[in-house]
Amino acid sequence: MMQLDNLYQEVILDHYKHPENKGLADAFDAQVHHINPSCGDEITLNLSLEGTKVKGISWDGVGCSISQASVSIMSGLMLGKDLMIAQEILDNFVSLMQSKGVGQPDENVLEDAVALAGVSQYPARIKCALLGWMAFKDASVQAQKKN
Ligand code: ZN
């Protein structure tokens, strides 16, 4: 595995072994399927909105620990948030992933997602970390069109 801070590695492995919001809900406003062919990661994400609030988020997937932990962390962060806040969190995380290892993650905004900061040093793995977040973005656009 990559050289990540031990504490961060524990957070990632904990989400990988005990994922949040895993298991697809029957009811949803949008369902998306995203893949990361370079690593073999796949996720399906179901999203439901109540007005502009994230009412439900559930997912299923297979792949590396980074991709699966990241979608678990993302799902916990976005659940219950207004889409405007969700977008800010997402932008914050994307900036962190583009920071080439020098970004200073804001734990108040990103919570457990700060554990993924070290991934930004490994260009080949950034797509793993972003997979679930891009799926969320896609699903939120589709769900808003529907509502
Ligand atoms: Zn991966």
Automatic annotation (TrEMBL):
All copies of domain NIF system FeS cluster assembly NifU N-terminal, residue ranges: 8-128
GO BP annotations, alphabetical order: iron-sulfur cluster assembly
SUPFAM superfamilies referenced in this protein's UniProt entry, alphabetically: SufE/NifU (SSF82649)
Database matches in Gene3D superfamilies: 3.90.1010.10
Pfam families the record matches: NifU_N (PF01592)
GO molecular function, one term: iron ion binding
Protein name per UniProt: Unannotated protein
Lineage, uppermost ranks: unclassified sequences, metagenomes, ecological metagenomes
